[in-house]
Specification:
This protein has 745 residues and is α+β, with helices and mostly antiparallel strands. The chain is 30% helix and 24% strand. Strand 14, helix 8 and strand 15 form a beta-alpha-beta unit.
């Protein structure tokens, strides 16, 4: 099926927020801190600027609560006395001429009394300087299964490893942007590039102290998000709305690329420590996993990112006994937040690198060590969730090996001359990804969707789920059309507008097709049942008969709408206190294979071939599904080999696309995408989540392949040429007995 918004996008008819103007509109800008931590002593305004031309907003202008309401509500909308990270917003300016704004921002001077900052997870853990709460810890979790202490005594092998992942910028095509308007009668209206209209709605209600009917949020066409527009739009929307309220005019704020990169959220950096008891033949007997993420200066979404990382830390393997300790710690960097995969890519990178390490210690192949530990029907995950679906991970592994010609390539690469300047390697990664909100999250969200039929027989889907390139509009319309036995062209989707659509939950966590899609299917069936009960529609009908039935019903009864609310499956129960149970209603499963070349002249890694095989329940739209996997693998390659955030005193130094390097199309290999489909009773037509899964596997598969090529272990990503050079360069004779560098075992 063609994408619902595709024609408008390729012809330029699609309207993004920066295409929109309102009468009398002003432009807004943010004055930010340039220190990591300190008390604001004085704010000065250059007298050469005519400040009467500008609208100025500080924290004193906030009518409600000075916070970005999310989970812990600890992040101020505007700093008033203390700043806790570079680029923290302090005051706002607006002017009719956007060109004057930049000079005005530079003409504001802020003096600080500096406070000692914390820049690393290790410094935060030492607690010599407390920057958040009593111990610098936003959130911690403990998962316990079996008797871990008993496994150490009898274990033939105890394998330890420490693994690191860096921050990663979402790098969506369209930067963050909003337009806000305010009037006393209607309250606040915001149009923006965003993922979660009702997140912004909640934040604005708290910021302005307004009831829900006085806050309206409209999602405009959104040019990419990847999690980066989950929580941050609440900040920029609050800023534009405050300026609109004070000026009495609409205000547009559009970040340029440099501001967007330096000020907004990134993927959480992480450190994972594994200590695993292993049998002689490579079976996991039990172990301990410590997973720590850098949350930045405020809590934002760190607790839920940590949660998913915690639950995925054990991978798709059976652990008879395990103890998983995890925490999110505070540092004086801009807050880290949501990014595709949401904690799982970090902990799964460690797990899959560690599996290769176990294989080395035991003396079996990376393939065999996975085969001997895969979860099977009836076994339990680390959170003691029983595997009820008939997943055959050995079959998935075998098919991935066959598709990639793994055995033949492995043999050939081993036999090839390893002394030359180019070395070949091949690596695998096996993993899983839970679909939907973790644990009791979906119960808490209590999502609601609607379907409306018009007198012309056309149908409109009413959801707050946002389209930002991943195919939401298309797939949800397909589901409704299928349920109503109507042509796809007869179904449209309403623009997400909090005055029009119900709260179907955020567009995150690989939940749209599975959770929201199932509700759309139910709501559409409700339309059919309503018409059948009134005798207007038979069991079998044509689109013309459906149109006539709708016309007659609406003439007699008014609007024809059907709503469906989330009802938790009876066999899905999660214990928040003990952190155990059914973490997700369904998992998607995958095996990825990467083939690489390591050039010992330039110390670069080239991914030559990539096979991505996944079981995703049911593929609803093959083109969109393959596109999701291809894009996720491309981002995963960037995560592994290219994208390094360079920090200096808590600030991102390389905040432009000339020095923050992402892979382009010429840097990518053939990405060969394959699916297995086992169905899923909890998803529309058997679908599971698909959007985040492909982010989890590429990095460990690639680094496993680099080790296969070089014989050197690397436990930190991104793996850049300088890291390879440091580990692989010939050392002077007198240095050869010195301890190895970081990343080299």
């Amino acid at each position: 099926m063609p994408r619902k918004e595709g024609w408008d996008k390729v012809t330029g008819a699609a309207r993004y927020v920066d295409d929109m103007t309102l009468p009398g509109m002003l432009y807004g800008a943010t004055v930010r801190s340039n220190v990591a931590r300190g008390k604001i002593r004085k704010i000065s305004f250059d007298p050469s600027v005519n400040w009467n031309e500008y609208v100025l907003v500080t924290a004193k202008d906030i009518a409600g609560k000075n916070c970005i309401a999310l989970i812990l509500d600890d992040q101020p909308c505007l700093a008033s006395a203390t700043v806790n990270h570079p680029e923290e917003p302090i005051l706002l300016l607006a002017h009719a001429d956007p060109h004057k704004l930049r000079k005005a921002v530079d003409a504001v001077a802020i003096e600080y009394d500096p406070l000692p900052p914390v820049h690393t997870m290790e410094e935060s853990e030492q607690q010599s300087t407390i920057i958040w709460g009593a111990d610098n810890i936003f959130k911690s979790y403990l998962v316990e299964k079996g008797d871990v202490e008993a496994v150490w005594k009898e274990a033939p092998h105890v394998v330890e490893g420490e693994y690191f992942t860096g921050a990663q910028e979402q790098l969506y095509i369209e930067n963050n942007g909003v337009i806000a308007a305010f009037d006393a009668e209607n309250g606040v209206t915001v149009w923006g590039s965003l993922q979660c209209p009702y997140y912004v709605h909640k934040a604005l209600m708290a910021l302005f102290g307004l009831p829900e009917e006085k806050v309206r949020v409209v999602q405009m066409e959104t040019g990419g998000a990847f999690g980066g527009k989950e929580e941050y739009p609440s900040m920029i929307a609050g800023h534009a709305a405050l300026l609109a309220m004070k000026s009495g005019k609409p205000v547009k704020i559009i970040y340029d690329r440099m501001e967007d990169m330096v000020a907004t959220t990134k993927r959480h950096p992480s450190r994972t420590r594994h200590r695993t008891a292993v049998s002689k033949d490579g079976q996991i007997l039990g172990g301990e996993i410590e997973f720590t993420i850098d949350g930045g200066a405020y809590a934002t979404l760190s607790s839920v990112v940590l949660s998913r990382g915690t639950i995925h830390a054990g991978g798709p393997y059976y652990w008879p006994s395990v103890r998983i300790r995890t925490k999110a710690v505070a540092t004086n960097t801009p807050p880290h937040g949501a990014f595709r995969g949401f904690g799982a890519p970090q902990s799964l990178f460690a797990m899959e690198r560690h599996m290769d390490r176990i294989a080395q210690v035991v003396g079996v192949s990376p393939v065999e060590v996975r085969r001997r530990n895969f979860l099977r029907l009836g076994q339990t995950t680390t959170t003691q969730q029983v595997i009820r679906e008939n997943i055959d991970l050995n079959h998935l592994l075998d098919r991935a090996l066959e598709l990639s010609d793994y055995d033949a390539k492995k043999k050939r690469f081993t036999q090839e001359d390893k002394i030359g300047a180019r070395k070949k390697g091949i690596g695998i990664a096996s993993f899983l990804h839970g679909a939907g909100f973790t644990g009791s999250g979906e119960r808490y969200l209590n999502s609601l969707v609607g379907v409306e039929a018009g007198a012309d027989g056309n149908v409109r889907v009413l959801v707050s789920s946002a389209e930002f390139g991943q195919g939401t509009n298309t797939v949800l319309c397909q589901i409704a059309a299928e349920a109503l036995n109507l042509p796809y062209e007869n179904v449209a989707i309403a623009q997400p507008d909090t005055t029009v659509v119900p709260n179907s939950g955020p567009t995150v966590a690989s939940r749209t097709a599975m959770i929201v899609g199932k509700l759309v299917q139910s709501a559409a069936m409700g339309i059919k049942q309503t018409l059948a009960k009134t005798g207007l529609l038979g069991e079998e009908y044509t689109p013309e008969q459906f149109r006539a039935a709708c016309r007659e019903y609406i003439a007699a009864h008014g609007t024809l709408k059907s709503y469906a609310g989330y009802e938790a499956p009876g066999d899905v129960y999660w214990d928040d206190e003990k952190y155990r149970g059914e973490a997700y209603a369904a998992f998607a499963w995958a095996v990825y294979v990467a083939e690489v070349t390591v050039d010992l002249t330039t110390y670069t890694v080239t991914v030559d071939d990539f096979v991505a095989l996944q079981e995703v329940g049911k593929v609803l739209n093959p083109v969109l599904a393959a596109g999701q996997i291809t894009g996720g693998v491309a981002q995963g390659i960037g995560f592994a080999l290219y994208e390094k955030v360079v920090w200096q005193n808590g600030r991102m130094l390389n905040n432009q696309m000339t020095n923050y390097i992402m892979p382009t199309s010429v840097d990518l290999p053939p990405i060969r995408v394959f699916f297995e489909e086992l169905g899923n009773i909890h998803g529309a037509h058997g679908a599971k989540g698909i959007g985040e899964l492909p982010m989890d596997g590429p990095a460990p598969a690639i680094v496993n392949a680099v080790e296969d090529a070089t014989g050197v272990r690397f436990n930190s990503i991104p793996l850049l040429p300088e890291d390879l050079f440091e580990a692989l360069r010939p050392q002077p004779f007198e240095q050869q007995t010195l301890p190895s560098t970081r990343g080299k075992a």
